[in-house]
Write a structure and sequence with these properties.
The chain is an alpha+beta fold. The strands form 2 sheets. It has a 4-stranded mixed β-sheet with strand order 1-2-5-4. α1 links the parallel β1 and β2. The chain is elongated, with a radius of gyration of 20 Å.
Amino acid sequence: MRETRILEFKETITNTFLKTVSAFSNYNGGTILFGVDDNGNVKGLPDVKQACLDIENKINDSISPQPNYTLEIQNNEQTIKLTVKSGLQKPYLYKSKAYKRNDTATIEVDTLEFSRLVLDGKNISFEELPCKDQELSFKILH
């Protein structure tokens, strides 16, 4: 098993996973497995119940708007599976920045992509935006 665009491994719980939660919420969703190293080996977490609370509190306190996610304890209470769904109120921000997945890395979106996310959150595409300079007369047909 290896990391992909929609799968991330975290051996421990640090705030870096919050960028990935932002990325998954902004795009196609994904899964983060805690207690698993970068090679996909189960290392386990010392106290999974407390870890679940920590993850939940970090997400609730740091990501805005609130993302849609589920937490599940797995592997005989050694690992935690965090499933993040693609959200409707894009962009989902962590520390006032939006993120996306670039293969197995999580990176900050540029200004153009940020604009796309804002429009997507409003259910609008660039093609639907009004043009500032619209001369729509059809003089040739006359």
